[in-house]
Amino acid sequence: MIVRIFFIISISIGYSSAQYKVSIPGGVQIKRSHFNRSQIENDLQSKYSNLLTATRNAASSFTSLYVSTQSLTAYGLGSYYAGYITIGTPPQQFLIVFDTGSSNLWVPYQKGAEKKHKKYNTFNCNISTTCKSTKRRISIKYGKGMAKGPIMKDIVCLDGLGVDACTNKNQRFACVTKKTVKGAFDGILGMAWNSMSVGKIKQPIDQIFRNKSNCPEEVFAFWLNPNTEKTTGGGEMSICGIDSTKYTGEITWIPLAKTDYWRIKINSVYFGTQLIGNQTFGIVDTGTSLIAGPPSTIDVILTLVQAKAKKDGTYKVNCTQKSTFPTLTFYINNNTFDLTPENYIQQFNKKEKQVCLLGIMSSGPLNMWILGDVFIRPYYTVFDKANKRVGFAQSVTIT
Ligand SMILES: *[C@@H]1O[C@H](CO)[C@@H](O)[C@H](O)[C@H]1NC(C)=O
Ligand SMILES: *[C@@H]1O[C@H](CO)[C@@H](O)[C@H](O)[C@H]1NC(C)=O
Ligand SMILES: *[C@@H]1O[C@H](CO)[C@@H](O)[C@H](O)[C@H]1NC(C)=O
Ligand SMILES: *[C@@H]1O[C@H](CO)[C@@H](O)[C@H](O)[C@H]1NC(C)=O
Ligand SMILES: *[C@@H]1O[C@H](CO)[C@@H](O)[C@H](O)[C@H]1NC(C)=O
Ligand SMILES: *[C@@H]1O[C@H](CO)[C@@H](O)[C@H](O)[C@H]1NC(C)=O
Q1: Mutate to test the pocket of ligand 2, among 110, 117, 126, 128 (most ligand atoms within 8 A of CB)
Q2: Those residues with Cβ within 8 angstroms of residue 116's Cβ, 6 or more apart along the chain or in another chain
Q3: Which of 216, 234, 261 is the last residue of a domain?
Q4: Which of 43, 285, 373, 384 is catalytic?
Q5: Whose CA is nearest to atom 12 of ligand 3?
Q6: Domain check: are 253 and 369 in the same one?
Q7: Number of folded domains that form the chain
Q8: Which ligand is nearest to the CA of 319?
Q9: What are phi and psi of 86, to 5 degrees?
Q10: Average pLDDT for consecutive 10-residue bins of the chain (399 residues)?
């Protein structure tokens, strides 16, 4: 079964920039943008195909298909958050999606003397004094097209506010000729564990963590403004520290169940007072815009809110009834995490009419939870590499 996922958080198109200053090392401002719905479509199964086919592919350490599917999915869900990184000496800048649901860094590259692409930035190894092209190549399938390119080595920096958060010059990354995705952003920086990396290319975050003088704490954290109406509201990713101005109360820590993705155990799920899901895994994924869950559980929700499937794979609900819908509650490590209808339904104006889209859908044969941006917006999320745990705290809303 192929599940098509689209998720438009708001109908406005274009970038919105976060304007909030960060006082911690290596804070990266991220902004929320939208995909062109008719242009982008995808499914979670392909992003997580290695979970479905783990046994079959255990022997092969290099499967190009995985890269393709990850990269498509990360921006296949309607809205995404992106920020800047630089590569090389002098630095070349790229707008990147920070994706905790994959483990590879890739950017488009400039192969020959051809003109730079108009719609996105390309990496040119020749003009970086620290760049080395390796002999290895990576081949990536994009939907109907194919993109191939070399694996390069260079310095990768998160565009921090005055503080360097950089790898050394031996950081490897994939350089690809970008074909299908237009405009939106340049590449993806995977932040899951190295065991999930295609071609065993270590992701840059561990390298950044290695510099103890710059990076005392092996953590990164995401704040995605719960107020999605505000076009100037974006988000923030911090690295080597957390930003205590972006959450209130205590951080609740959840141990990882496995260090492949940011994978935790979810004990049970309630919709109002009704138990709708038993123990299963959940993956915390900043690169997915919504929440996906086991089909049997999602079916109960769809029925209870009388969701109507739209052609593009999203579900609509009646806006007038929104306030009567129950709270969705996750029991995790003996803590409860509530999502109100305000959190899991996106309401916006379309041609003078209110439209309400459900931020929840089925994860199909994955049969587990993918806790995407719909979950992360109300819960400031800390990814603690050193202690193999994630932390959730009540997010601050900026209006
Ligand atoms: C979205 O993509 C389609 C197909 O590529 C194109 O026809 C349309 O003009 C695009 N819309 C916007 C708003 O960019
Ligand atoms: C980089 O240098 C190589 C070898 O001189 C050349 O073939 C290639 O076209 C150059 N690439 C760019 C983007 O200038
Ligand atoms: C750590 O980063 C600082 C500042 O960028 C740099 O001077 C230093 O050489 C780095 N240390 C290591 C071990 O890479
Ligand atoms: C959860 O497990 C209990 C005990 O095995 C079972 O009775 C119940 O039907 C299950 N509920 C769901 C929603 O799967
Ligand atoms: C939405 O719900 C309200 C209140 O229950 C009802 O009056 C209205 O007809 C519903 N709208 C649609 C399109 O079903
Ligand atoms: C969960 O909390 C309940 C009530 O506070 C307690 O009785 C139970 O032992 C706790 N379970 C675990 C696994 O900590």
Answers
A1: 126
A2: 110, 122
A3: 216
A4: 285
A5: 211
A6: yes
A7: 2
A8: 5
A9: -125, 150
A10: 24 24 46 47 56 39 26 40 87 88 85 70 93 82 56 86 74 76 71 85 89 84 80 73 90 97 97 97 89 92 93 82 97 97 87 87 85 94 97 92
